[in-house]
Design a protein that fits this description.
This protein is of the alpha/beta class and 187 residues long. The protein contains seven helices and seven strands.
Length: 187
């Protein structure tokens, strides 16, 4: 059985592009245990999420997938904002600039641990204060790294261009995960 170690509806939706045959477990790892300045923060988060669930899986038959996604601009990590003001500050800094979206993943199957980071580049349009405030007041941004989601872009036009995987920007590197699942004949 494939286990998605995540409570994210976006990750569930993206894994569904690969397979419908999976179950969900919520990781018990406290994200505050890792320093936000960790060089490979997204990878560390995904790895520790997996460790929090590995004892709950059948090591002979289950495949566990965990992912964490961050936004990075000028070596500063933007996770999920804690409130409206922080979300506005994040989006103001991202406005008109190119940043990286980094998803770290950890896939455990039998005695194999597959983990890596996938990087996409996102360039924002130049946004006015009014546009940013309207976006923050219209969308629940508190559960999104960098205070935005690519799925909302059609209505709000935050993004000028994406270089790399849009699925990765959504928070789940579909192509990389699918390649591993195919390698193990799990899909």
């Amino acid at each position: 059985m494939i286990i998605l170690g995540s409570s994210s509806p976006r990750r569930k939706e993206l894994l569904s592009k690969i397979t419908k045959n999976f179950t969900i477990m919520n990781p018990t790892f406290d994200e505050r245990e890792i320093s936000i300045n960790e060089a490979h923060y997204a990878f560390e988060e995904a790895y520790h999420k997996a460790l929090s669930l590995v004892d709950k899986m059948d090591a002979r038959n289950d495949c566990l997938i965990t992912v964490d996604t961050i936004v990075v601009l000028d070596n500063e990590i933007y996770g999920k904002p804690k409130d409206r003001d922080e979300a506005i500050k994040m989006l103001t800094k991202l406005s008109g600039k190119t940043h990286q979206v980094i998803s770290g993943y950890c896939l455990i199957y039998r005695d194999n641990v597959n983990s890596d980071e996938v990087i996409s580049e996102v360039t924002f349009n130049k946004l006015s204060k009014k546009e940013i405030e309207h976006y923050v007041d219209s969308i629940n941004v508190l559960d999104k790294a960098g205070a935005y989601s690519v799925q909302d872009d059609e209505s709000f036009h935050l993004i000028k261009k994406i270089k790399g995987s849009t699925d990765n920007v959504m928070g789940f590197p579909v192509d990389e995960i699918k390649a591993i699942l195919v390698k193990y004949s799990l899909v």
